[in-house]
Amino acid sequence: MPLALLVAACALGPALLQGQVASWPSVAMDPTGNAIAVWEQIFGTRHDIYANRYTQGSGWEIAAPIENEQISSDFDPEVAMDDAGNAVVVWRRVQNYVYGDDRDIWANHYSPTLGWGTAERIDKSEEHQSWYARVAIDTDGRALACWQQPNDGLFSVWCSWRAPNAWGAPELIETDELGNGYFPQPAFDDDGSALLVWERFDGARYDIWVNRYARAGGWETAGPIEHDDAGNARSPNLAVAPDGKAMVTSGQSDGTRTKVWVNRFE
User: Fold this and answer.
1) Range of 88's domain?
2) pTM here?
């Protein structure tokens, strides 16, 4: 069902926008089958974030932008949805797309009763070089957005919470001063605890790192979940079960070939 909805959203958006090019789709569903699809819509040299909502029994609504910036360009959206149908979308904004300046992280939220809110910046980085935002939402509607952002000359992993109705201050999740942190991905269990995985580059090799957030105790200590020094480990993908069990897959090289590896958390 999610794949069918994703394909429908990709086809629906450009048709409604008179042939404009669309890319980078993301879709999320609630337990009743309602869904929100978001994507990047291209208008010449400007990129906007569009969304459409699917309701069981009624079908797709009308695609519309969820940010109103007409000068900057917006890229790489991701959406997450809770059990009540509330949703959060995060993306990367480039203030000057032609020259690639000022990359910031922005977000918007959706309520089934109030509709879309107002897009807002959530990274607060003075260096304006934040990238690759990803988001997860728990069963209580708390959202966790994470991204990569410079910190003392290195890229680090930062996150911000949205609970209940406002974004909190960004916090540094990994403090490794010897490497860069890239491409974070968060996920929740039904208890409201979370796992966060990312790539870490130490100047010579990529590893997969993880940190855990416990609902009762906060963030723990970040560390690697693979210890093979033969080659790079990259592109982590995370899935968390309702009871907190989790699996992380990654592509890992043995020095000759890249294979898919998996690690399990219980």
Assistant:
1) 2-172
2) 0.88
Is 148 a domain residue?
Answer: yes
CA 4 to chain centre: 21
In this structure, what token pair is assigned to residue 191? 């208890």
Give the CATH number of the domain where residue 9 resides.
2.120.10.10
Question: Residue 51 falls within a domain, yes or no?
Answer: yes
Burial class (CB in 10 A: 0-12, 13-18, 19+), 207: buried
3-state secondary structure of 191: coil
Cβ 150 vs Cβ 170: under 8 Å? no
Dist CA 107 CA 78 (whole Å): 10
From first to last of the 266 residues of the chain, give the pLDDT tens digit.
Answer: 344 444 444 444 444 445 578 999 999 999 999 999 999 999 887 899 999 999 999 999 999 999 988 788 999 999 999 999 999 999 999 976 555 568 899 999 999 999 999 999 999 888 778 989 999 999 999 999 999 998 888 889 999 999 888 999 999 998 777 789 999 999 999 999 999 999 999 888 899 999 999 988 899 999 888 777 778 888 999 999 999 999 999 998 887 889 898 888 88
| Tokens 């899935």, residue located | 239
Please state the domain count of the chain. Answer: 1
| Cα first-last separation, the chain | 28
